[in-house]
Amino acid sequence: MSDSEPPSRCIFLTDDTGTVQAWNEPCAALFALPAEQILGRPITTLFTPAGRDVWGAGWGALTCRPDGAELRVDLHCAGGRVREGTLTLAPLLDADGTQHGCAVAVATGRDRGGTEAERVARTPLSAIVDMLPGTFYAINREGRFVLWNRNLERVTELTPDELGATRALDLIELEERPAVAAAMDDIFSHGHETRFEVDYVSRSGREIPMLLCGTRLRCYGGDYLFGMGVDISDRRDSEQRLRLRERALHATSNGIVIARLDHEQSVIEYVNPAFERITGYAEQEVLGKEPGFMAAPGMDLAERAQLRAAIAARMGCSVVLRNLRKNGELFWNDLAITPVQDEHGDVTHYIGVITDVTATKLRTAHLEHEVNHDPLTGLANRNLLWDRLEQAVHLAQRHKALVATVLIDLDNFKTINDTFGHEAGDVVLKVVARRLQASVRDSDTVARMSGDEFVLVLANQPSLRFTLRMVERLRESFAIPVAFNNREIPVGASVGVSLYPHDGATAAELVRAADLAMYHGKGSGRNDVHFFSADMKSTTEAKHRIELALRDALDRDELFLLYQPRVTFADNRVAGFEALLRWRHPEQGVLVPARFLAEAEESGVIVPIGQRVLDQACAFAAQLRAAGFGDVPVTVNVSHREYSQPGFVACLADRLTRHRLPPRSLQLDLRIDGLIRNPSLGQELAGQLRTLGVDLSVDDFGAGLCDLGFLQQLAASQVKLASGTVQALDEGGQGVAKSLIDIGHNLNMAVVAEAVETQPQLDFLASNGCDQFQGAWFSEPLAAEAAQRMLEEQLPA
Questions:
Q1: Which residues form a coiled coil (predicted)?
Q2: What are the start-end ranges of the E strands in 220-308?
């Protein structure tokens, strides 16, 4: 038997005021108090201060519980030791049932002295609940709070009195109450420990998500639910953000891969649905695999090396490469990888974003082909030609090799279109394209430069002899006619060749040299080949100097007009003037158009020159109109290059308006060969001039081939006999001239003879019905003032 357990049960008696009335020996031994020292004293002498409060509550409850009560208090025992004590109180009743005291049985437990851990364990619960980080509470079976901490008051925004009168379920969202009530009932009924999430509703209506945990504890004969609550607002927000991000990962059209770095190897940990859709692999098929398992063998090795280097350096990277889908189909993948660091700054994962750009790549390739290739023949177009030629020149510079540029212009291609139709012309172009490609190497380029013009780039030519053999194969390919609708169409071409570095240092110089060589031989024979020479280069440079000089002439106002009278045979009166261009050259004197007009036409300077001529001619017509000669029109020669410019007729109308001229004051003189070159344009121009009211004059009638049906459709006001036809009158050419005059009249057009220089010419033309003439026989071209005086002199006196 130890000193902590008395030899027999400790029992003493008290009256109804709690005064000790009887005391046995075990009590004297336990408390070290003999009977004479305790009898007549209050029982609270035996208790610690906290135990006295418990006794007071238990004594009061005794009157309400005739079966007795059980109290746990701290007792002052022998040797100054404090022990846990369990007091079992049994009421003492009189015969009539009136309580006159109670019997108290004492059972002692642990020594309240003990170790540090034991002393800490004896700390009252009420002393520590307010220090807990969350809410703490004790709930009785009725669901009311009997104990709580200040955090519960803060969260609920209720005062202690309000909490004491509040049922726990009143703090819960209405829809959650049934589940919480069921959980509480389970705790009280079975003593299970449980945890669940609820939303507290504070006095102000604020909802606070809480994680609650609780269990049943028995205290002084009663069962209570002791629990704690933790505010999980931050966790809820984090979970919501995570769910949002997860939904975003699932919803995105880009494939997402998360790979873990494992000893310099990447292992797939996550893929989203877009990855499954793009690759055809389900998530379970790829988890744990290395991300490069889809690589297309032998493709994009540089890009994959770039990826590996970036991962080794723990850096991000973006590449475009080709992978294989599960079904073996090749697809283009725009891949961007980003490293993910842990809390120590170490890269542990990589996030890869996959974009399927297959459709874009195919569309880009298709568009690139359309941009760089001729739609009819499939050959390289002008854009790709310049790129390939520049590349070939660059490589030739490095390797000291030759580059041949071959320009091919089909002979009489317009005649093929006119004779066999445009469908036949397209067939000829396609066949020529195939033959040209078959005559060169894969490293060479065949391009369609324009309508019937082709350019070949023969790269890396080892010698001139090698180039000659290749060009000869090209020439031979044109010897075979093209079959179309059971007919054979002969195809000829003029070929010009230039060589790098002899004939030019740039792509533009080489094409110009080949073009010049081709034109140099055009018309000298079918299928001729001409190589560029130094003489041609000199001619080119001379033409370039003329072009620059003409532009300077425009700036310096060196171009001027003379006016040649057009005279009627009927009354020998001036019926109009033809504006003739002259150039007052600072070194060579006054030049006629034959000295510079061809170069102006070739270089395009003819367009601004023609605009200057129209301005001066309109100014002269306005001068005549102001002098009273409004019925005398001025004729202006316009080249094909001028009237084929967009908006030509609109600009002409604007000039007439600015000079306040009626349309009949001006007449346009157009060469028949230029009109026939593009019949649709000629018809459109003639119609626009008729609408505007400006007369059309067809020049050089009889100098070459002429489509009379087309001439009739133009409905010109007059035709002008070519100067060669007039000059031939002195050499027996009267029949041709007479026929042309008759044709003009039959087409309801006036006939004008040009370059009349002799009396016999004049007599023949007059006797055969020619309407008007002009030339040196009557007058040389005149300055504007002299031309006006001529009109004034023919007025009647």
A1: none
A2: 222-231, 255-262, 265-271
Strands (E), 249-381: 255-262, 265-271, 317-324, 330-341, 347-356
CATH number of 125-236, picked from 3.30.450.20, 3.30.1130.10, 2.60.40.3500, 3.40.50.720:
3.30.450.20
* Residue 303 neighbours by CB under 8 Å, 6+ apart: 319, 320, 321
| Same fold: 281-362 with 547-793 | no
Residues 6+ apart with CB under 8 A from 740: 701, 702, 719, 721, 725, 751
The gap between the terminal CA atoms of the chain, to the nearest Å, is 173
The CATH topology of domain 10-121 is Beta-Lactamase (3.30.450)
281-362 belongs to CATH 3.30.450.20: yes
User: What is d(CA 527, CA 492) in angstroms, rounded to the nearest whole number?
Assistant: 5
> What long-range pairs does 593-602 form, CB within 8 A, spacing at least 24?
596/546, 596/550, 599/543, 599/546, 599/547, 599/550, 600/546, 600/547, 600/550, 601/639, 601/641, 602/543
Write the secondary structure of 156-206 as one string of H (helix), E (strand) and C (coil). Answer: HCCCHHHHHCCEHHHHECHHHHHHHHHHHHHHHHHCCCEEEEEEEECCCCC
CATH of domain 547-793: 3.20.20.450
Q: Give per-10-residue mean pLDDT for the chain (797 aa).
A: 52 88 90 90 84 69 63 82 82 78 80 57 67 85 88 87 86 86 88 83 84 83 86 81 73 82 82 87 88 86 87 87 88 87 87 83 67 84 88 88 90 80 89 89 88 90 86 82 86 88 90 85 63 72 80 92 95 94 92 87 88 95 94 94 90 94 95 82 91 93 78 91 89 88 94 94 94 94 95 81
Residue 794: count other Cβ atoms within 10 Å of its Cβ: 13
Residue 668: predicted pLDDT: 96
Residue type, 211: L
Q: Where are the domains of the chain?
A: 10-121, 125-236, 281-362, 373-532, 547-793
C-beta separation of 532 from 516 below 8 A: yes
**pTM higher than the cut 0.85:** no
